[in-house]
Amino acid sequence: MDQWEQIVIKGGGLNGPVIVSSLQELQSLQLRLAQIAREAAQASGEAEPELPQLLQMASTPMEPVEISYLEGPHESFFNMLELDLDGLVVWFQQLRELKQPQRAALYFLRLYRSHSLPEALELMVDLPLLAGDAADVLEEIHEMRGDLDAIPDPFVRYIDWARMAQDWLSQGTLVIFQFEGVEWVVLSPKAK
Fold first, then answer.
1. How is 43-96 classified by DSSP, letter by letter?
2. What is the rounded distance in angstroms from the CA atom of residue 121 to the CA atom of residue 113?
3. CA-closest candidate to residue 133, choices 96, 176, 163, 92
4. Taking the CB of residue 178, how many other CB atoms lie within 10 A of it?
5. Where are the domains of the chain?
6. Would the pTM count as exceeding 0.90?
7. pLDDT in tens for each of the 192 residues of the chain?
8. Residue 57 CB: number of other CB atoms within 10 A?
9. Backbone angles phi, psi at 176, to 5 degrees
10. H or E segment at 99?
11. What's the rounded Cα separation, in Å, for the pair 192 and 188?
12. Is 134 exposed, middle or buried, given 0-12, 13-18 or 19+ CB atoms closer than 10 A?
């Protein structure tokens, strides 16, 4: 899925703002930042940096960079991530292609659990996350786990899912949050 978007990068020794819209443009910019770092090292009389050092300098320029989403379909998601240059590479390689449930999982793990981007990417795969009303989600979770198989069908309809959801919310077993206009429910690991 090819998405058109513009991301602005300022600072880092650049003469002015640079707009990138692809991984190739970002890699070209990183080469330019490495050249700026090389020239700065030469001007200060330091030894010529080796290639690994140059690549590191390009990822973390001497001057801070400001990265902002100028235009495209995922502005609020991008801004929430607070990406650095390395994170921007991950954006073009993986993040911008995520489906809504994956974006919601990443949003939850970054904002509500304060995980780093690499940690959140790893954890989002196993995050028990469903969209919808908490009571409906709770019923669906119990159906998926097979918990209702042991209860005779006539009695299942008497389960007060809304009340159970309220209890689980107050106990911290369920977490509800809004993302991209959808209510998402996360089941706490202690409830599994």
1. HTTPPPPPHHHHHHHHHS-SS-EEEEEEESTTHHHHHHH---HHHHHHHHHTGG
2. 13
3. 176
4. 10
5. 6-97, 126-191
6. no
7. 456 789 999 987 788 899 999 999 998 888 887 777 777 777 777 766 666 665 665 555 567 888 999 888 888 899 889 888 888 999 999 998 999 999 999 999 998 899 999 999 999 998 989 999 999 988 888 888 888 888 888 888 889 999 999 998 899 888 999 999 999 999 876 544
8. 21
9. -115, 135
10. none
11. 7
12. buried
18 with 31: CB under 8 angstroms?
no
Amino acid at the residue 105: A
Which single residue is written with the structure tokens 């990183």?
A: 30
Amino acid (1-letter code) at residue 46? E
Q: Are 187 and 128 in contact (CB under 8 A)?
A: yes
Tokens 């700065």, located at residue? 40
- Which tokens sit at 100? 């809504």
Long-range contacts of 127-131 (CB under 8 A, 24+ apart): 127/186, 128/186, 128/187, 128/192, 129/101, 129/104, 129/105, 129/184, 129/185, 129/186, 129/187, 130/184, 130/185, 131/101, 131/104, 131/182, 131/183, 131/184, 131/185
Alpha carbon distance 178, 155 (integer Å): 32
Q: Give the tokens for residue 16.
A: 């002015």
